[in-house]
Amino acid sequence: MIQRFGSGERMSEAVVHNGTVYLAGQVAADIDQGVEGQTRQVLASVDRLLAEAGSDKTKVLRAEIFLADITDFAEMNLAWDAWVPAGATPARATVEARLYRPEVLVEILVTAAV
Fold it and tell me: Nearest CA to 43 among 4, 103, 7, 90?
C-alpha cells in the first residue's frame, strides 16, 4: 500500500511505502530570512510532515541538504545541530546547488522509517 500526503498536480509532500516515508524537498516559506532561519523553517516542515506520516526525527534515515552557497554550511549547521537528536543522526549529504529561486538558500530532502 502507498499513502500520499499533501498531493498536488505535480508532486506529493510525503509518500509512505513499505514502512518508509519519503519527503519532497522542503524549502522555507519566509525566504527573507538568512540560511539559519530558513533551515529552522524547513526542519519545522520536516517535523510536521513526519508526524503526519506517523514518524519523527528520531527515525530519519537519510537527509540530503542543498545549499545555494556552500559557504553557508556552518550557518545551516547551527539550525541542524539544534534540531537533530543526539544518538539519532542520519546519513547525510550536503551539496551546493542552484535552487529554484535565488532567495531560497536551503532545501532539505528526508527519508525516514515509519
Answer: 90
At 26, which amino acid appears?
Q
Q: Is residue 54 left, alpha or beta, with left meaning phi > 0 and alpha meaning psi from -120 to 50?
A: left
CA–CA gap between residue 111 and residue 114 (Å, rounded):
10
Task: For residue 14, list its beta bridge partners.
Answer: 5, 23
pLDDT in tens, 39-49: 999 999 999 99
Three-class secondary structure of residue 113 per DSSP: strand
CB atoms within 10 A of CB 80: 22
- pLDDT tens digits for 18-41? 999 999 999 999 999 999 999 999
Task: Tell me the whole-structure pTM to 2 decimals.
Answer: 0.95
113 in Cβ contact with 55 (< 8 Å): yes
DSSP tag of 32: T
DSSP 8-state class, residue 59: G
